Each structure stands twice: as structure tokens, then as C-alpha cells.
Amino acid sequence: MQTVYYLVLVPMVYAAFAVFIFGTAWRLAQTARRPAHGATLQIFPKKDPAWLYAVADTFFMPSILRHSPVLWFFLAVFHLAVALLIIGHLELFAQWRLLQIVPHEVFLGKGFVGLAASVSLLFLFFRRFHAPVRDLSVPEDYYLLILLFLTVIFGSQMDWARR
What crossing angle do the helices spanning 139-161 and 112-127 adopt, rounded to 10°? Predict the structure, then answer.
């Protein structure tokens, strides 16, 4: 029995590591030998700076606003709430006067930021139960939304319990 443990724990581990290294090197060599191909998706006009369109598309999400204004609203609320939560958590470092953006005794928003984040996460979670989003969802999507929701709820309940 000792020999089986030794075979599993020593040579097989080295063999697995060697297969990983040689397989990765092989795939990198195959990828490097392939001919370069041009971009198939051209969404930016050639005369304007592409980064400007990328920034506008990232922060304002015009395609989502065009197709689903309700989804756009809840996404905007969620991202604004996350930004405010980050700012609020930076202010917990009292010794850093530079990070104290707005002096206050209670956390930013007085609990409203956590409520807004939790409501938007609930919308994003229950949205996954309807077609066509249901067909594209995998279990990891649900787990991530549940984890984020529980994090927001447990963090907010500490602030809500203070009142």
C-alpha cells in the first residue's frame, strides 16, 4: 500500500506537471505559427479616437439603454452604489486625512446605498429566471449574484442595526 501512495504522490505529480508545461509550450508554439488575421469586428470609425468611444460605451452603456431601459437603470444604480460603497469604505481609514472626502458620522447614504445595491442585485438575480437570460445562465451566475447580495445585506445590516 505504501508503494501505491508513493506512486500517486511523487512520480504522478511530476508527470502531471511535465504534461502541463510541455502542453502549454506546444499550444503557444502552435498559436505563434498561425498567420495573423485582421480584426473582424470594426465598431469604431477610423477618423475618431477609438478610446473615446470605448470610454463612452463603458460608462454610459448606450446599447443596453436602447434595448432594455429597466436593465440599464438597475445596472447604473448598482454601479453607482458600488462606487459610493468604495468611497465610504476608504473613509474608514481615519488616520489618512487625504481619503476623508466628506466628513460624517454615519456611513455614506445612511443605509440607502446598501438598500439600492441590494434591490438592484435582486433585480439582476430574478431577471435570470426569465427567457432568454435563463437559457444563457449557468450556476456560477446565480452563485455570484447570491454571494454579492449576501455581502451587501450583511454589510448593510450592521449599519441598519445601529439605528
Answer: 160
